[in-house]
Prior knowledge:
The chain contains six helices and six strands; from the N terminus they run E-H-E-H-E-H-H-H-E-H-E-E. By secondary structure, it is of the alpha/beta class. A six-stranded mixed sheet has the order 3-2-4-1-5-6, sandwiched between helices. Helix 5 crosses helix 6. The termini are far apart. Mean pLDDT is 88; it is low at 205-210.
Amino acid sequence: MAEITVVHLLRHGEVHNPDHVLYGRLPDYHLSANGRMMAAAAAGFFDGRPVAAVFASPLERAQETAQPVADRLGLPITTDERLIESANVLEGTSVTLASLATNPLNWRYLWNPFTPSWGEPYKQVAARVWQVVGRARETVRGREAVCVSHQLPIWVTRLSAENKRLWHNPSQRECALGSVTSFTFDGDNLAGVSYAVPPRQPVVDPDRAQ
Protein backbone atom coordinates (compact mmCIF):
# COMPACT_ATOMS: atom_id res chain seq x y z
CA MET A 1 0.00 0.00 0.00
CA ALA A 2 1.34 3.44 -0.96
CA GLU A 3 2.19 6.02 1.67
CA ILE A 4 -0.30 8.79 2.39
CA THR A 5 1.31 12.23 2.39
CA VAL A 6 -0.44 15.55 2.93
CA VAL A 7 0.86 18.96 1.84
CA HIS A 8 -1.03 21.94 3.27
CA LEU A 9 -0.98 25.38 1.63
CA LEU A 10 -1.61 27.89 4.41
CA ARG A 11 -2.56 31.43 3.41
CA HIS A 12 -0.98 34.13 5.56
CA GLY A 13 -3.04 36.05 8.09
CA GLU A 14 -4.50 39.54 7.83
CA VAL A 15 -2.03 42.34 7.10
CA HIS A 16 -1.77 45.79 8.69
CA ASN A 17 -2.76 47.86 5.66
CA PRO A 18 -4.81 50.91 6.67
CA ASP A 19 -4.26 52.62 3.29
CA HIS A 20 -5.58 49.60 1.34
CA VAL A 21 -2.47 49.39 -0.81
CA LEU A 22 -2.13 46.60 -3.36
CA TYR A 23 1.10 45.54 -1.68
CA GLY A 24 2.00 42.50 -3.79
CA ARG A 25 5.68 41.80 -3.22
CA LEU A 26 6.45 45.10 -1.51
CA PRO A 27 8.44 44.82 1.73
CA ASP A 28 7.43 45.86 5.25
CA TYR A 29 3.83 44.69 5.25
CA HIS A 30 3.34 42.85 8.52
CA LEU A 31 0.49 40.98 10.20
CA SER A 32 -2.17 42.95 12.03
CA ALA A 33 -3.42 41.91 15.47
CA ASN A 34 -6.06 39.80 13.72
CA GLY A 35 -3.37 38.35 11.48
CA ARG A 36 -1.32 37.26 14.48
CA MET A 37 -4.44 35.63 15.90
CA MET A 38 -4.92 33.77 12.61
CA ALA A 39 -1.33 32.56 12.73
CA ALA A 40 -1.85 31.31 16.28
CA ALA A 41 -5.04 29.54 15.17
CA ALA A 42 -3.11 27.84 12.38
CA ALA A 43 -0.51 26.67 14.89
CA GLY A 44 -3.31 25.12 16.93
CA PHE A 45 -4.82 23.53 13.83
CA PHE A 46 -1.59 21.69 13.01
CA ASP A 47 -0.67 20.82 16.59
CA GLY A 48 -0.70 17.05 17.04
CA ARG A 49 -0.59 16.32 13.30
CA PRO A 50 2.45 14.51 11.83
CA VAL A 51 3.86 17.69 10.27
CA ALA A 52 7.56 17.22 9.52
CA ALA A 53 8.42 20.37 7.55
CA VAL A 54 7.39 24.02 7.28
CA PHE A 55 8.05 26.03 4.13
CA ALA A 56 7.21 29.72 3.60
CA SER A 57 7.26 32.55 1.11
CA PRO A 58 10.02 35.08 1.86
CA LEU A 59 7.55 37.95 2.40
CA GLU A 60 7.14 39.18 5.98
CA ARG A 61 3.46 38.31 6.29
CA ALA A 62 4.13 34.71 5.29
CA GLN A 63 7.15 34.36 7.59
CA GLU A 64 5.15 35.82 10.50
CA THR A 65 2.33 33.36 9.83
CA ALA A 66 4.74 30.43 9.60
CA GLN A 67 6.61 31.26 12.82
CA PRO A 68 3.93 30.21 15.37
CA VAL A 69 3.34 27.01 13.40
CA ALA A 70 7.04 26.20 13.34
CA ASP A 71 7.44 27.10 17.02
CA ARG A 72 4.51 24.91 18.06
CA LEU A 73 5.86 21.96 16.10
CA GLY A 74 9.53 22.51 16.98
CA LEU A 75 10.52 22.82 13.33
CA PRO A 76 12.65 25.30 11.35
CA ILE A 77 11.15 27.42 8.57
CA THR A 78 12.50 26.68 5.11
CA THR A 79 12.09 29.76 2.91
CA ASP A 80 11.25 28.98 -0.71
CA GLU A 81 11.06 31.86 -3.20
CA ARG A 82 8.59 29.90 -5.34
CA LEU A 83 5.88 30.42 -2.72
CA ILE A 84 6.02 34.21 -3.13
CA GLU A 85 3.04 36.35 -4.13
CA SER A 86 2.43 36.65 -7.88
CA ALA A 87 4.13 39.56 -9.63
CA ASN A 88 1.78 42.46 -10.42
CA VAL A 89 2.58 45.71 -12.24
CA LEU A 90 -0.16 47.45 -10.24
CA GLU A 91 1.38 46.89 -6.80
CA GLY A 92 1.81 50.02 -4.73
CA THR A 93 -1.49 51.55 -5.86
CA SER A 94 -4.36 52.25 -3.50
CA VAL A 95 -7.23 51.68 -5.91
CA THR A 96 -9.17 48.68 -7.13
CA LEU A 97 -8.74 46.88 -10.43
CA ALA A 98 -12.18 48.13 -11.49
CA SER A 99 -11.24 51.76 -10.94
CA LEU A 100 -7.93 51.28 -12.74
CA ALA A 101 -9.89 50.17 -15.77
CA THR A 102 -11.50 53.61 -16.06
CA ASN A 103 -8.11 55.21 -16.79
CA PRO A 104 -7.00 54.69 -20.44
CA LEU A 105 -3.35 54.81 -19.34
CA ASN A 106 -3.87 51.48 -17.59
CA TRP A 107 -5.53 49.69 -20.47
CA ARG A 108 -2.20 48.30 -21.71
CA TYR A 109 -2.14 46.22 -18.51
CA LEU A 110 -5.79 45.16 -18.49
CA TRP A 111 -6.40 43.97 -22.05
CA ASN A 112 -6.27 40.25 -21.24
CA PRO A 113 -7.76 39.04 -17.92
CA PHE A 114 -7.25 35.41 -18.90
CA THR A 115 -3.44 35.40 -18.64
CA PRO A 116 -3.55 37.94 -16.81
CA SER A 117 -1.87 40.79 -18.70
CA TRP A 118 -1.29 42.86 -15.53
CA GLY A 119 0.84 40.28 -13.79
CA GLU A 120 2.61 36.94 -13.71
CA PRO A 121 0.84 34.35 -15.90
CA TYR A 122 -1.43 32.03 -13.95
CA LYS A 123 0.22 28.95 -15.50
CA GLN A 124 3.62 30.12 -14.31
CA VAL A 125 2.36 30.78 -10.78
CA ALA A 126 0.68 27.37 -10.51
CA ALA A 127 3.75 25.61 -11.91
CA ARG A 128 6.20 27.12 -9.42
CA VAL A 129 3.97 26.50 -6.40
CA TRP A 130 3.31 22.94 -7.56
CA GLN A 131 7.08 22.44 -7.64
CA VAL A 132 7.19 23.34 -3.94
CA VAL A 133 4.31 20.96 -3.25
CA GLY A 134 6.39 18.25 -4.91
CA ARG A 135 9.44 19.21 -2.90
CA ALA A 136 7.44 19.11 0.31
CA ARG A 137 5.91 15.73 -0.57
CA GLU A 138 9.34 14.22 -1.19
CA THR A 139 10.68 15.73 2.04
CA VAL A 140 7.98 14.33 4.33
CA ARG A 141 6.94 11.06 2.66
CA GLY A 142 4.23 9.42 4.75
CA ARG A 143 3.76 12.52 6.90
CA GLU A 144 2.60 16.13 6.39
CA ALA A 145 4.10 19.48 5.40
CA VAL A 146 2.90 23.08 5.70
CA CYS A 147 3.69 25.66 2.99
CA VAL A 148 2.76 29.29 3.75
CA SER A 149 1.89 31.30 0.67
CA HIS A 150 -0.60 33.84 -0.69
CA GLN A 151 -4.15 33.80 -1.99
CA LEU A 152 -3.66 33.86 -5.76
CA PRO A 153 -0.79 31.33 -5.83
CA ILE A 154 -2.73 28.95 -3.60
CA TRP A 155 -5.96 29.32 -5.56
CA VAL A 156 -4.50 28.82 -9.05
CA THR A 157 -2.49 25.85 -7.78
CA ARG A 158 -5.70 24.27 -6.54
CA LEU A 159 -7.45 24.99 -9.85
CA SER A 160 -4.54 23.42 -11.72
CA ALA A 161 -4.55 20.34 -9.47
CA GLU A 162 -8.28 19.92 -10.07
CA ASN A 163 -7.80 20.32 -13.85
CA LYS A 164 -9.91 23.47 -13.96
CA ARG A 165 -9.34 26.62 -15.99
CA LEU A 166 -7.02 29.07 -14.27
CA TRP A 167 -8.71 32.35 -15.15
CA HIS A 168 -11.39 33.20 -12.62
CA ASN A 169 -13.30 35.86 -10.72
CA PRO A 170 -11.09 36.87 -7.75
CA SER A 171 -14.18 37.43 -5.59
CA GLN A 172 -15.02 33.73 -5.90
CA ARG A 173 -11.75 32.32 -4.59
CA GLU A 174 -12.20 29.86 -1.72
CA CYS A 175 -9.03 30.94 0.06
CA ALA A 176 -9.73 33.09 3.12
CA LEU A 177 -7.02 34.71 5.20
CA GLY A 178 -5.44 32.07 7.44
CA SER A 179 -7.15 29.22 5.57
CA VAL A 180 -5.68 25.82 4.74
CA THR A 181 -5.89 24.12 1.35
CA SER A 182 -4.69 20.54 1.66
CA PHE A 183 -3.46 18.12 -1.01
CA THR A 184 -3.54 14.44 -0.04
CA PHE A 185 -1.28 12.08 -1.99
CA ASP A 186 -1.43 8.32 -2.22
CA GLY A 187 2.17 7.70 -3.19
CA ASP A 188 2.81 10.19 -5.99
CA ASN A 189 -0.84 10.41 -7.02
CA LEU A 190 -3.11 13.21 -5.88
CA ALA A 191 -5.97 11.54 -4.03
CA GLY A 192 -7.93 14.57 -2.86
CA VAL A 193 -8.09 18.28 -2.14
CA SER A 194 -9.72 19.74 0.96
CA TYR A 195 -10.20 23.17 2.50
CA ALA A 196 -10.53 24.40 6.08
CA VAL A 197 -10.46 27.62 8.08
CA PRO A 198 -8.98 27.11 11.56
CA PRO A 199 -11.40 28.46 14.19
CA ARG A 200 -10.33 31.71 15.83
CA GLN A 201 -11.69 34.60 17.83
CA PRO A 202 -11.22 37.94 16.02
CA VAL A 203 -9.71 40.77 18.01
CA VAL A 204 -10.93 44.35 17.89
CA ASP A 205 -8.65 45.94 15.31
CA PRO A 206 -9.27 48.84 12.86
CA ASP A 207 -6.84 47.40 10.31
CA ARG A 208 -8.21 45.89 7.16
CA ALA A 209 -6.30 43.71 4.71
CA GLN A 210 -6.54 42.92 1.02
